[in-house]
Automatic annotation (TrEMBL):
<feature type="domain" description="Thioredoxin-like fold">
    <location>
        <begin position="49"/>
        <end position="133"/>
    </location>
</feature>
<keyword id="KW-0732">Signal</keyword>
<dbReference type="Pfam" id="PF13098">
    <property type="entry name" value="Thioredoxin_2"/>
</dbReference>
<dbReference type="InterPro" id="IPR036249">
    <property type="entry name" value="Thioredoxin-like_sf"/>
</dbReference>
<dbReference type="InterPro" id="IPR012336">
    <property type="entry name" value="Thioredoxin-like_fold"/>
</dbReference>
<feature type="signal peptide">
    <location>
        <begin position="1"/>
        <end position="20"/>
    </location>
</feature>
<protein>
    <submittedName>
        <fullName>DUF255 domain-containing protein</fullName>
    </submittedName>
</protein>
<dbReference type="InterPro" id="IPR041737">
    <property type="entry name" value="SoxW"/>
</dbReference>
Length: 195
């Protein structure tokens, strides 16, 4: 009986705990060991990502954000999601209320919190997808090819990364149409019951 209770408690705790690759930083944010640590010069980060054959993604989070926690524990811990992102994107984390210095694409120097305000990002997590090459005289919010504010389920989350990687924003198929098509394909393959 006691052994069964201990096993049950252990299983419950293991489902609630962050993945082994996730830690909590001094700023209270979850840290994936594959997130890039940079000087937060956005043009430089776009170039670095391009040199790696990837795209730059910025993720705005905040301490105590339950949706950010869910993103790390349910989405970024899923090997299908994490492997796809790691293979195709360089991810840089931003603290919505942080004081780290940021250099915008227009050359302006800000803190993370003033950058979030300038760019109009008010939800956490907010995921910002940048173009393959750094444009001049634009802000991050003007240059972004897509922005995903808030938390979503696995397939919406993963499909947004796929849509950007496939440059869906350049075509005629809106993300919502793309997502619906992928969901239907997954259902036909028997990989999805509900989404």
């Amino acid at each position: 009986m006691i052994r069964t209770l201990l096993l049950g408690a252990s299983l419950l705790l293991s489902t609630l705990a962050p993945s082994a690759a996730t830690t909590i930083g001094d700023d209270g944010l979850h840290k994936e060991d594959w997130f890039a640590i940079t000087f937060r010069d956005v043009a430089e980060d776009i170039e670095t990502a391009r040199e790696q054959g990837k795209r730059l993604v910025m993720i705005f989070e905040q301490r105590g954000c339950i949706y950010c926690t869910a993103m790390h524990e349910k989405l970024l811990s899923d090997p299908e999601v994490a492997d796809y992102i790691k293979a195709n994107f360089m991810v840089v984390q931003y603290n919505m209320f942080g004081d780290e210095e940021v250099t915008d694409l227009d050359g302006g120097t800000l803190t993370e919190k003033t950058a979030a305000r300038k760019w109009g990002y008010v939800f956490t997590p907010t995921i910002v997808f940048l173009p393959e090459e750094a444009p001049e005289d634009m802000t991050v919010s003007e240059a972004a090819v897509a922005t995903m504010p808030g938390a979503f389920g696995k397939w919406t989350f993963l499909n947004m990364f796929r849509w950007v990687h496939e440059k869906g924003y350049e075509g005629e198929e809106h993300f919502q149409k793309y997502h619906a098509r992928i969901i239907n394909e997954l259902r036909e393959q028997g990989r999805l019951d509900v989404e």
